[in-house]
Amino acid sequence: MKIKQLSIFLENKSGRLTEVTEALASASINISAFSVADTADYGILRMIVNKPEQAEQLLKAKGLSVKITEVIGLVVPNEPGGLHRALQILSSEEISVEYMYAFALSDRATVIIRTEAVQQAITVLQKHKLELLRASEIYEL
Amino acid sequence: MKWNEYIECMDREQLTKLQSERLSTMVERLYYNVPFYRKQFQKNGIEPGDIKSVDQLKQLPFTTKQDLRDNYPFGLFAVPVADVVRLHASSGTTGKPTVVGYTRKDLNIWSEVMARTLTSAGAGKTDVLHVAYGYGLFTGGLGVHYGAEKIGATVIPMSGGNTQRQLQLMQDFGSTILACTPSYALFLAEAMAEAGMTVDSFKLKAGVFGAEPWTEEMRREIETKLKIKAIDIYGLSEVIGPGVASECMDQCGLHVFEDHFIPEIVDPKTLEVLPYGQIGELVFTCVTKEALPLLRYRTRDLTVLNVEKCSCGRTLVRMKKCLGRSDDMLIIRGVNVFPSQIETVLLEMNETRPHYLLIVDRVNNLDVLEVWVEVDGQLFSDEIRKLEALKKKIQHNIESVLGINASVKLVEPKTIERSEGKAKRVIDKRKLM
User: Fold this and answer.
1) Which helix H or strand E contains A58, and what residues bound it?
2) What is the pLDDT of residues A34-52, one digit of tens each?
3) B318: pLDDT confidence band, cut at 50, 70 and 90?
4) Residue range B167-184: average pLDDT?
5) Does domain A70-139 have CATH number 3.40.250.10?
6) The pLDDT of residue B353
7) What pLDDT does A13 receive?
8) Mean of the pLDDT values across residues B68-80?
9) Of B253, B255, B252, B272, which is closest to residue B263 (Cα–Cα)?
10) Distance (Å, rounded) from C-alpha B100 to C-alpha B143?
11) Residues B331, B336, B337, CA angle at the centre, nearest 5°?
């Protein structure tokens, strides 16, 4: 249930993002989820792609700082309280979320969650019958 | 005005004789009291009594900052530590500072040369001397302080920082002489204007400025803005602290107090002694100090010596304002900084040596240091919180090693230019030389 996410360190300079997307496009790597965390000087680009290892090698070869991090892909109903229920479960187990980003498609929403305790979070969420995406599923989204 | 006209205007032949006598005694003393020097004398076949004249200086070994570190803390002292009444220290590369010691007689020598310095800047008994050099392990504050007391001036031991209070007290106490780094003098001038104070409400007439390189343009700016005479002073703690050399009111080179510190100019590569008038590295031999009399100490400062008699009447040799360094040392806000010190800090955070770049600039007349660090491998975390913590930690460790604030910027790998495989470590935008 662990999903490999690609994290890339980018300085806030014009054209940097394009370089990454261009490299992935030319290698036919698909991006299924994507988020940017930014500060005044730099940002961290986080994304789920269908070939994480290949993408890592490719971007490293371009001289970027790249890292693969394990995250969870949680499916929640696209309705009021959908996300709240899942977060309540994690919070009651004292699992803290480092960061998360989400995308909704019709009646379902997928939330990418990063926590230090990935395995524990998976176990807890499954115990409460929440739906988690398998790596193979999310890469094909 | 001269504090010690007898020495400062001494006939050069007589001065050379005095230096020779003192050097001869010093070599003998070092032979018996400092194993570091004895070993080198024996290696070069020098016996006590062999050195009779300053012409033989070139037979003597050099001393470097590394020698001081290797013999940390008191290994080069020529007296028992019990006879040392004061220690000063400067920041070190791996936490080990450079330590210098003074006996009571050394403190008297220091006061004497600082008394000469202040007198040549026009200070006297009736002056109020505002000392804004840092007090503490740094030699600046206390060095000026003792000289100022010796000439009988009224001393305000302000130390650095708290600019508003500095201005307030300078105004209230009617300070006439300002002692600080030249960049701080400019900073004070601007703070004065911002606070709506006019320079005419102050009684300043002169300033003794040193501890960092500065230009003639800066001098003109200080002189115009503060309506004072800006005098350049030179010193380094390994030799004694401030008071090694000082300009006179004619501002045409710094008179070296060579009855105590004999200067030589050497080629930094071959170490050959160069004649007067040629640019090279300045080297000092202490001939009167007791606790830490170093032989041929390599300052790494590049300059030229001029032996012509000055229009002020002094016969002491004059050194030009420093023209640069023969190593990579930077002086930031009066603090000596080696890029290797920052490298050591970074190494402690990572297994491999990260690429870094130091950018030094002068903003509003204050030196600022920016450290760029390439985020690579181990340093990279995909959480902002951790990257920000890393930044703070680097900042904090730099401050604890160097004692100065640096702003840290995390940059992508390969941002820092490599030339011939070696990264460029420093960009100094201050244009001081």
Assistant:
1) helix A52-61
2) 899 988 889 999 999 999 9
3) very high
4) 95
5) no
6) 62
7) 83
8) 96
9) B255
10) 13
11) 90
* This prediction's pTM: 0.74
Query: Of B235, B292, B285, nearest to B73 (Cα)?
Result: B292
For A3-15, what is the mean pLDDT?
Answer: 90
Average pLDDT in chain A:
90
Question: Prior bond to A52 cis, omega within 30?
Answer: no
Determine the CATH number of domain B332-428: 3.30.300.30
Q: Using the beta-carbon criterion (under 8 Å), do B413 and A63 form an inter-chain contact?
A: yes
**What pLDDT, in 10s, does the model give residues A88-130?**
999 999 999 999 999 887 788 899 999 989 999 999 999 999 9
Predicted local confidence at residue B195, as pLDDT:
92
Which positions ≥6 away from B398 have C-beta within 8 Å?
Answer: B342, B345, B371, B404, B406, B408
Pick the CATH number of A2-67 from 3.20.20.70, 2.40.50.140, 3.30.2130.10, 1.20.1250.20: 3.30.2130.10
Phi and psi dihedrals of A50, rounded to 5? -75, -20
Q: Where along chain B do the CATH 3.30.300.30 domains lie?
A: 332-428
Fold matches, A2-67 and A70-139? yes
Nearest to B433 by CA among B230, B222, B213: B213
Residue of chain B whose Cα is closest to the Cα of A39: B384
Q: Of the candidates A41, A67, A69, which has its C-beta nearest B409's C-beta?
A: A41
Enter the tokens of residue A4.
């490999």
Ranges for all domains in chain B classified under CATH 3.40.50.12780: 86-327
One-letter amino acid for residue B301 of the chain: D
How far apart are alpha carbons B285 and B289 in whole angstroms?
Answer: 10
pLDDT reported for residue B217: 82
pLDDT of residue A87: 93
Kindly determine whether residue B382 and residue A65, on different chains, have CB atoms separated by under 8 Å: no
Residue B254: name the closest of B275, B280, B234, B278 by CA: B234
The verdict on a CB contact (< 8 Å) between B412 and A7 is no
CATH classification number, B86-327, choose in 3.40.50.300, 3.40.50.12780, 3.30.1360.120, 1.10.287.130: 3.40.50.12780
Would you tell me the crossing angle of helices B182-194 and B163-173 to the nearest 10 degrees?
80
Alpha-carbon distances of A124 from A98, A121, B117, rounded to whole Å: 17, 5, 76
Q: Assign B418 a pLDDT band (cuts: 50, 70, 90).
A: low
A63 or B107, greater pLDDT = B107
Using CB atoms, which residue from B382, B411, B414 is nearest to A7?
B382
Q: How far apart are CA A24 and CA B118, in angstroms?
A: 69
The closest CB to that of A37, out of B376, B384, B409, belongs to B384
Reference A130, options A90, A102, A99, A100; nearest CA is A90
pLDDT in tens, B8-48: 999 999 999 999 999 999 999 999 999 999 999 999 999 99
* Strand ranges, E, within A62-107: 65-77, 97-105
- B376 to chain A, any CB pair closer than 8 A? The answer is yes
